[in-house]
Amino acid sequence: MKKIIIIGAGIIGLSISFYLKKNNFDIRVLEKGKVGMEASYASAGMLAAQSEFDFYEKFMDFCIKSRSMYAEFCKDIESASGIAVEFQKCGMLRPALTEEQEKHLKNNYKWQKKQGFEIEFLPGDELRKIEPELSENILSGLYTKNDGQVNNRKLMEALITANKKIGNKLIENCNVKNYIIKNNKIRGVETNNGIFNADTIINTSGAWSSLISPGIIPNFEVKPIHGQLVSLQANKKMLDKVIFASILGKGGYMVPRKDNTIILGSTMEDMGFEKKVTDEGINSILKTAYDIVPEFKNMKIIEKWSGFRPFTDDKLPVIGKTNIKNLILATAHGRNGILLAPITVKAVTELVVNDNLVSEIKDFGVERFNK
């Protein structure tokens, strides 16, 4: 039986391991800490395939394709685990509080329509009909009905359960230090728990991806971008839609859960592997939230946390083969790891099972950094 090692037990690693098992591989997932407790746990679970983008780029098509696969993806995992992951195609609003923001969103609306994407530009009164708790100061905004959310923590719980049920081995506190390579072909990995042999290695370790055998893959570097989040508890349903109140990297978002908690985020801080929650970071998130939904001021803070998003210099994922035979990368998904799990699974499965590079990932190979 072909042995596969997946490095990193976040949403990408656990999704790949779950689907690859259908091909009867011997699969081990090695996680440096606790399974499912890094970026995938720290996320807000947004599926913002249209709302995330201020200007059109081809990467947006990749995100939209993955979003279209999400319902089936969640259905598979729920069926295998017995755990509901609260996938909602609930729609997303992008509000404008100033004339400058309004002008930007109008331009956004025009190019999205030109690309054929489904989107509406609505005056403030129409937005408040959709979400009555929105501030009277909101002038207008975008409504993308096909964006949505999933409860990322329940999704991780479901993926862990599903993987265990089908016999995949999830090994915690197993830090991969180096690849074992012979004749330019992968043979296994060296870890703090000894050596693990494998026929294929898939590196899905996010912000830590380029720390394994540093320099062995030319010009491959992923760095952590720190993000802080906070959650509030409401005593009633406050919102139906996700509010994505970020324009040109400034602002934040509000994600309503089914248990009436509201996830608020997030900062973007380039500070290395230093995980911390600061008053400055949390207060900036809360200010944005209060400007959009004033009633949030009366709600209790129940949790504050942070995590590391994995980014390359060009802010695009790295998915595909490397200069070392049978070493595959599926990492650097930035702010979109939750969203991009289904399409990444499809691409990696095709590489492993059929040695086929699907067209969707042709721009995301690591060789692009050599140009």
Can you describe this structure?
- With 371 residues, this protein is an alpha/beta fold.
- It folds into 2 domains: 3-42 and 154-222 and 313-370, FAD/NAD(P)-binding domain, CATH 3.50.50; 81-148 and 224-311, D-Amino Acid Oxidase, Chain A, domain 2, CATH 3.30.9.
- Helices cover 27% and strands 28% of the residues.
- The strands form 4 sheets. It has an 8-stranded mixed beta sheet. The chain has a 6-stranded mixed beta sheet with strand order 8-2-1-12-19-18.
- Strand 15 and strand 16 form a beta hairpin.
- The two termini are 38 Å apart.
CATH T-level topology of the largest domain: FAD/NAD(P)-binding domain
* Shape, principal axes of CA atoms: globular
Q: Which percent range fits the helix content? A: 25-40%
Q: Measure the end-to-end span.
A: 38 Å
Q: List SSEs in N-to-C order.
A: EHEHEHHEHEHEEHEEEEEEEEEHEEEH
Oligomer: single chain
Q: At the fourth CATH level, what is the homologous superfamily of the largest domain?
A: FAD/NAD(P)-binding domain
The total domain count is 2
Beta fraction of the residues?
Answer: 25-35%
CA radius of gyration is: 21 Å
Largest sheet report: 8 strands, mixed
Mean pLDDT: 97
Name of the CATH architecture of the largest domain: 3-Layer(bba) Sandwich
Question: How many helix segments?
Answer: 9
Helix-and-strand structural type: alpha/beta
Spatial strand arrangement across the major sheet: 5-6-4-14-15-16-13-17
Q: Quickly name the level 1 CATH class of the largest domain.
A: Alpha Beta
Spans of at least 5 consecutive residues with low confidence = none
